[in-house]
Amino acid sequence: MSQQQLIEAMSTIKEQEALAIAQDMVKQGADPFSILEACKQAMAIVGDNFAKGVYFLPELVMAGQILMQISELIKPLLKDASSSKQSLGRVVVGTVEGDIHDIGKDIVVLMLEVNGFEVRDLGIDVPAAKFVEAVKEFNPQVVALSGFLTVAFDNMKKTVEALKEAGLRDKVKIQIGGGQIDEEIRRYTGADDYGLDAMEAVSYAKKVVAGGAQ
Length: 214
Prior knowledge:
single chain, alpha/beta, Rossmann fold, 2 domains, 5-stranded parallel sheet, 9 helices, 5 strands, 12% strand, globular
């Protein structure tokens, strides 16, 4: 079984076939990160098809379920492959209010966990007040705001402002990601950083806990 076969099965929403391929790859000793990369590529295809109107919400949800099942399968292998053996820090992650996309968020959560971070995943369509509550309770160093739709940008900004009003803004670094995120959107939302993929999220979180993030 190969990466390309896994990409094909996942991107065409063939659940049992995708799981069987992933299981065979694990048995054959495939690099767990190569399996994750295949998942990432497949989800990019799914997201593109959703944006084009080829796929709809049921396909998006099913793709996310397949991803989570494969993630659970390879998570122990990823942890073994990671050099991080103890908690590096805490990160609150969530897709902001008005947006229900979770594929990118779920990959970020997975990669943060396997790299040694404690993660509180707030899920999708998360109002600003819930982020504020989570920061008070969980005391993270980083808050990661996800959003795929352009409407998410306003709610990212509202979330940053809500943290500021609650007196918590200076206690956390905020990174945004998902969709067409760039430096202009970062400035608009008031976030500290933006990431284009899961590894950039991990890299930034490590930089924050090491005291090197601006």
